[in-house]
Design brief:
The chain has a domain of 119 residues. The chain is globular, with a radius of gyration of 17 Å. The protein starts with a helix and ends in an 8-residue tail after the last helix. With 174 residues, the chain is mainly α. The protein is 75% helix and 0% strand. It is built from 8 helices and no strands.
C-alpha cells in the first residue's frame, strides 16, 4: 500500500471538515437576526475550520512516519456518502431554517463516525502527528458539548433535547 494514500486520506478528511464548516457558516448567516445563535454557529464553523487545518498540518509533519492506515472500504464508502450529503445540502439555496432543523442537521453531522476515523489516522501517524494534533486541535468532544449546551438552551423540542443528552464526548484510550 502506498503510504502517500494515507496522506491523501488526511487531505480528503480535511475537505470534509471544511464542508461541515460551510454548513455551520450558512447557519450563522441564516441566524443573523439572533446574535446568540449567529455567534454559536460561527464558532462551530471556526472550530471545523481549525479541525481541517490540523489535519493538513498533520499531513505535512507526518512525512514518512505515517503508517498504512487507510480506512477500510466500508468506512471510505460512509465518508463518500457523508460528503455527498453535505454537498447536496450546500447546493440548495436556503433562505431560512428553523432552530430545530439546524440542530437536527448538526446532530447528524456531530454524531457521524468520521471523528473516529480522523483520530485513527492522526494518532497512527507517529509522535510528530500526535504532538501537532495535541497542540493545535480542538477535541471533538468539545464540539459535542457546545452543541449539547446550545440545544438545551435554545430548543424545547423533546426529541432534540433527548438526542443532546445522548451526545457523548469522544474518549480515546491511550
Amino acid at each position: 500500500m502506498d503510504p502517500h494514500a494515507s496522506l491523501d486520506a488526511l487531505q480528503r478528511f480535511a475537505a470534509i471538515e471544511r464542508l461541515v464548516a460551510k454548513v455551520y457558516f450558512r447557519f450563522s448567516h441564516l441566524f443573523l437576526g439572533r446574535p446568540e445563535l449567529r455567534d454559536f454557529w460561527w464558532q462551530m464553523a471556526m472550530d471545523e475550520e481549525q479541525h481541517a487545518c490540523v489535519l493538513l498540518a498533520c499531513r505535512e509533519v507526518s512525512g514518512d512516519e505515517i503508517e498504512e492506515v487507510l480506512p477500510p472500504k466500508e468506512v471510505r464508502e460512509k465518508a463518500d456518502w457523508f460528503e455527498s450529503q453535505l454537498n447536496a445540502y450546500l447546493s440548495k439555496g436556503t433562505r431560512s431554517i428553523s432552530v430545530e432543523k439546524a440542530f437536527e442537521i448538526a446532530l447528524e453531522i456531530e454524531g457521524s463516525e468520521l471523528d473516529t476515523i480522523y483520530e485513527r489516522l492522526l494518532f497512527s501517524g507517529g509522535p510528530h502527528m500526535a504532538k501537532a494534533m495535541e497542540k493545535l486541535g480542538v477535541p471533538t468532544g468539545v464540539q459535542k458539548e457546545k452543541l449539547k449546551s446550545a440545544i438545551l438552551r435554545f430548543s424545547m423540542e423533546p426529541h432534540l433535547r433527548a438526542a443532546a443528552e445522548g451526545l457523548k464526548a469522544d474518549t480515546r484510550e491511550d
